[in-house]
Amino acid sequence: MKCTKCGAEIPNGAGFCAQCGQAVKAPAAAKPAAAPAAAPKPAAKPAAQQQPQPQAEPKAKKAAAPPPEPEEPAYDAEQDAKDGKLMAILAYILFFIPMIAGAHKTSPFVKFHTNQGLLLFIASVALGVAISIIQAILRVLLFNIFAWGLYGVLSTILSILWLAPTALLIIGIINAAGGSFKPLPVIGDKITIIK
Hints:
mainly alpha; 10 helices
């Protein structure tokens, strides 16, 4: 092999020319000799064989599987009572306000007290109609001077019954303000109108 710069003879395997110091490039014939060591194709085949096809299939199955659905948060009764307290109180005064606002659909607490307020309204109307009918009957039956006193006593007793809805109204508002799911006495225990 000769130096490309000065033309001096260079022994095989030398990296520099002894005369001029020029770096020696490896001859083209030397490249094929190094090629078998540099390109281990048989070693690449075992790498491909090390990844068995059963491992590739689960990846495809995982990609095809739908993403997991997000879990619904657990119901927090205390937070629901705090958020819906105003609507629950209004349900006893005007039961239709939470229904118009749609609060009874999103909050179990408001739904419960809206149902209680509706029951109280129906019971109050029914009691008013019953008292009016009984008073009309008593007025006809006891309409003379001697029975007028008896009519007054019975009429007063019936009028006192009007305090029952007012008492239930106060109990319901206290329950709603306190965040309680307690039903109203007598009327609110087993009847559910709003479902």
